[in-house]
Amino acid sequence: MYSGGAPPQQQGHMPDEKYCSGCGQTLPASAFYARKSGKLSSRCKKCVSASNSARERAQTAARNADPEVIRARQQHAERVRREREARELARRIAREAARAEAKARAEIRAASRVKTGAKLKGNRRKAVQPVSPEEMTANRDRVDYLLLLLSDRHPTEQIATEQSWNAAYAEVDRLWYVSGDRECVTCHRRVAPTEMLPPMPGNGRPGMCRPCAAYAEEENHRRTFGPLIGPLQSRRKLRMLDGTWITLGELARRHRVRTQGRPFTTASPALAA
């Protein structure tokens, strides 16, 4: 029973200082952890932290000394090493395969250039070498005969195998340049064999010299896509209906003069009505 004097301490009152059982010092209350019950911990924060660190170090040392842990870590390191080596090997194989493929493509291109150059050189040599009139006539007859076979227009004979076709094609390509001049079916000029492609399958302008074939191709392009297509940078000449020859630039100039002052689009009479 309370009989006066100083009032008793209320339950849960925090003291200002407390003795630490860990370091043996009397420290302020702020140096201790507060428990859920409202009381302070028996050891200060520094002692609790040092104890936790020592316990973690002891657990780590014990775990590192465990044979099962050591074996698992070694297996993991070995697996990581094998995976890394496999990735490096795959990358090295891919690089070597890419280099080999690029080298093979370069060799194919070089061989193709050499083959094409040799073929062009041989064709030029055949075109300039002297040929007797009798041999030229025989070559012309032979080429005409093979062209009939290749175009399937021979009345009695026909090519039956792919090997025979390839042989006839190669022979025409070889004899064409030593078969004498040919007459263009468009301009009716006699031109050298080098100025006219052999009228074999695949030649869309048979019997035309190179300028006439280019002109026909240009006219076909213009009929399809319009009278004036893009910048005309070529110096190739075009044959007009009156027989004169003009360049593409002159044709463009005439077109601009002819269409100068005209609108690009004209209204339909039906719409105007």
Specify the number of helices.
Answer: 7
Helix content: 40-55%
Average the pLDDT over all residues and give the rounded result.
Answer: 79
Oligomer: single chain
**Strand composition percent:** 5-15%
Unreliably modeled segments: 1-11, 263-273
What is the alpha-carbon Rg in Å?
50 Å
Helix/strand-derived category reads mainly alpha
Q: Characterize the main sheet.
A: 2 strands, antiparallel
Largest sheet: spatial strand order = 1-2
Written as H for each helix and E for each strand, in order along the chain, the element string is EEEEHHHHEEHEEHH
Q: What is the total tally of β strands?
A: 8
| Shape category | elongated
What does this structure look like?
The chain is mainly alpha-helical and 273 residues long. Among the domains are: 131-180, no CATH class; 181-259. 54% of the residues lie in helices and 9% in strands. The protein has seven helices and eight strands; from the N terminus they run ββββααααββαββαα. The chain has helices spanning 45-65, 67-128, 133-150, 162-175, 210-225, 248-259, 269-272; strands spanning 17-19, 26-28, 32-34, 40-44, 182-183, 190-191, 237-239, 245-247. A two-stranded antiparallel sheet has the order 1-2. Strands 3-4 form a two-stranded antiparallel ribbon. The protein is elongated. The N and C termini lie far apart (121 Å). Mean pLDDT is 79; it is low at 1-11 and 263-273.
